[in-house]
Structure formats: structure tokens, C-alpha cells
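Incident log, structure service

09:12 report received: a user says their structure output differs between two submissions of the same chain.
09:20 pulled the input from the user's history:
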Amino acid sequence: MSLVVQFLTQINQQVRNQQGDALCSWLQVSPESGAQYHQLASELRTQTQYASGSPGGLDDVVDRNLPESDDDDVVSPWSGFRSFIKDYMAFWRDVDYDDLVAAHDLLNTLVNSCATALSHPQGGMMLKTSMSLSETLAGLTMTLSRRPDLLRRAERAAAPGDDSQKSLAEKSAETIQRIFKTCLQDRTTDRYTTPGGTKVAVYKFANLVLKLLFACRRIQLATMLLTQIESQAPLLSLYPASQRVTYLYYLGRYWLSNNHFVRASRCLSAAYAQTPARFVSHRTRMLTYLIPCNMLLGRFPSDRHLLSARPEAATLGPVFGPLCSALRTGDFASYQRLLAERESWLLRRGLLLPLTYKLRPLLWRSLARRVFLLTYEPPLDPSSRKAATLDITHLQAAAEYLQRRMAETAAGKLRPNEGMVWGNQSVSFDHVEMVVTELVQQGLMHGFVAHNQRRFAIIGAKAKGPVIAGWPPVWQAVQERRYDDDFDPSDIPGWVGAP
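09:34 re-ran on a clean worker, output below:
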């Protein structure tokens, strides 16, 4: 009896006995698989009846050894499963692990076939096999994502207008998302009870899809997946900690990329809090996004309690600590210099743009506060009702000084993302007044702009003091913001059962 027939006979027995675990361990695809798999591959390659394009060869052998039972009460191989096994045999016949791009295409086809087999009413026994193959596909895709030479070769081989114009990571994500949808549509249990059937793997596959979408920088494609989770998935709290934490990590990154910093902070904070302290590298990865997310909300990390005290923050302190110091003082020059020094590191993690542009209001706020502290002269009469004000021309003078200083450092040529306004553009009074007006509108400065007097007048200085009244804490201002009736910042779409 040939090795191919022996292999198929064993698979047939496992299907009839509904041995999903045995089927998963039997259907291996990695290059580290046992010698018998490579012997199987050799037989498939050397015997002409199994050759690609040979009429009826491989298909006939599979159909003959995986017959479908006429008895409805007997579990037997179904048509989708036989198609999957044909693709599995073709995979071992054609795969060359020295050619990773071709191996990826074969494996992607195999997982696609597995998704079809899983969608059958008897497909539940394919769940663990689907997990194993999807994880292998995701791992190979991530390996390729670190090989730009191979990615360029794949792009050149793609025909214009073909579906293959999509990146390898995007194609892998779409394939695994098919399995995710099948699991999500399982009606074995509802969303408020312990998951059963294929629904136990909903977040497992969602995490793989999100991982690949972030790898290929197609984050917006995750919107549909998160919408489906929001409407159909069981409560996240019903799943194991590893799946919860991973999902919240990616969900937090998704909302961070969409500039919903409050939502992102809640997701990343929950993921960080649920990760045991012994997983230092995992907690470091979460802090990499949680710290800048909180910075965007005006919540700077404590050097004593976080950056210097926790091992997971050891490599992040030198990055974010100096940036926070520059933000506190409104030091544009130091802030932009620090960003330039860490530009490649921040760019790889998708943090450069939000830290470059979204934190400008906080820099201007700190600069305005600092100018006020240097120039304000309180009235000699304690009973005076004269309003405390900031002369906007003083703020303009400080901004012009910083602009000249940055231009000198850059040998006269600033990049568009540098400078007080836009590169070497001069700082006008109108621009500074507009910045102050925007800060007032955002609640980062409390008062009003007296246009004719060219001043910013502080409201409530008598009760709290001009500095506290005029420059409320940023996080407090964020929490007190009012939104349209149909928007609730505390609601987190994608987090089913968020506390």
C-alpha cells in the first residue's frame, strides 16, 4: 500500500470517529514536520499519476479513499473536506520552502479551502486544524513582511489589476477572516453564555486578522471586522485572558490610529492591567502605545512611579521622558529635535504623525502659560476687579524667538513638520491669536480673547488664581468636553461588554 493511500485511510478513520484533535496533529504543513511528511511529498512528486495536470490522478485517489457515506447518521468526509485534502496533497507535492513567496501562495490556498470545509455542518471537527493552519499562515506572512526583497518580487510578479495586487498580508488576513466569519455565525450558544462550538475561537481568529492588518498598514480594513464583533460576538470577558489581552491591545491601537484617544487609552490600560508582571516584553509592547496615548490626553507618565520603576518601561523612558519634559515647558525646539532623533523608531510604530501634530496644542498651551508666568503683574490692590490677562503680543514675541532659534539650528532650512507654524514660515499675530482661540475652544485655556485689546482674559481668576483658572489640567478639560448627542466617548465599539 502506497504512503498516500495509508495517509488518506488514516484521515478517513479520524473523520468517521470525529477526532478533531487527531486530525489537527495529522495535517501538518511546517518544514519541521516529521520525516513521513517529506516521504509523502517525495511520493507525490515522483509518481506521474499525482503530477499537476494529470487527468483524474490525485483527485481520483482522494475520492476513492475518502468516500461519502449514504447513511445520514454516519459521519463521513464531505465534498468540501475532500477538496481540502486534495489541496493539502497538492501543497506537499508542490511546496518548496526555499521559495517563501510560492509557499505562501500554496498555504493561502490551503487555508482558503479549509475555511470552506469548516463552514459545513460537520465542519466543527476542522476547528483546531483551522487554528493550526491559520497560525502557520500568519507566521509565514509575518516572516515575509520582514523581507522587503521578497515582497518586491511578489509585487513585480503580480498582474496589473489582478487581485494579487493586494499585499501578501492583506490576502492572508482576508483568508483568515473567512474562518472568523464562520465561527462568528455559529448558533450553538448566544453571546451572553459560555461560548460553544466554533464560537470558542472568534477572538483567536480576530486577533490573527488584526495582527496581519497592522503588519500591512491597512488598519482601516479592520473596521468591518470590529463592526461584526460588536453586533454578534460573545462577551469578551467569557474568553481566556490571553485572547482578551491580545484583542484589547489591537483594539486600542485601532482607536489610537483613528484619533479616539480616550477609547484607545481605556483598551490599552485594560490590556496592560490584565497582563501579569512576569510578561515584561508584552507589557513593554502595550506601554509603547499606552504612554503616547495618555500623553495626547495630557496624562504624562511619572518618572518615579513608571519610567524608572518598572522593568517594562526601561527602554521607553529615554524616548518619552524627554518629550514630556519639553511638552511641560512648551519647548518647541527641544521637542522637535527629540522627535527627529527618534523618527525611524516612532515611524515604524505609527506614532510619529500623532506625536508631531496632535501634541502641538499642548506645546502652545505650555508656552502661553510660561509667557504668562514671566510677564503677568498682579494688581497691587487685592480688591481690584481688573481681569488677569495674557498679552498675546508677548506670546507672539516668544514664538518668534523660538522660530529664529530653530532656524539657526537647522542651518536656515526647516522641514514642513518643524517650526512654530510650517517650516520657515514666519509667526504672525493673526496665527498666534488663532492658536489661542483654538485652545480656548478646546477647553485647554479658560477665558476669552479680547481681539481689540490683543489680550487673552482669564475667567475665574479671583476664585482659583489666574494660572489654575486660565490653564486647567488637560485631562480635566478632556473629561469635561461636550459632544453631540449621538457620540459617547466612554462607549468603545468593538469591546463587547466593556465595563
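09:41 both user submissions now match this output. Likely a transient worker issue. Closing.
09:42 reviewer note: The beta strands are 389-391, 447-450, 455-458. The first helix runs from residue 3 to 16.
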